[in-house]
Amino acid sequence: MKIHIKSPGRVNLIGEHTDYNGGYVFPCALDLTIDLLFEKKSKESYVNTDLGYSMSFDINTAYKKSNNHWENYVLGTVNELKQIKSKLSNFSCLIKSTLPSGAGISSSSALVCGLIKGLSIINNIDLNNSEIINLSRNVEHKYIGVLGGIMDQFTILNAKKNMGILLDCENLKTKYINLDLGEYKLLLIDTNVKHNLASTEYNKRVSECKQSLKIINRVCNSIYSNLSQVKEIDLSLSKNKLGQTLYKRASYIFNENKRVMKSANFLENNKLKEFGQLMFESHLGLKNDYQVSCKELDFLVEKAKENDGILGARMMGGGFGGCTINLIKESSINKFIEAIKEEYFSKFALTLNPIIANPDIGIQMKII
Ligand code: GLA
Question: Is the pLDDT of residue 195 over 80?
Answer without folding.
Answer: no
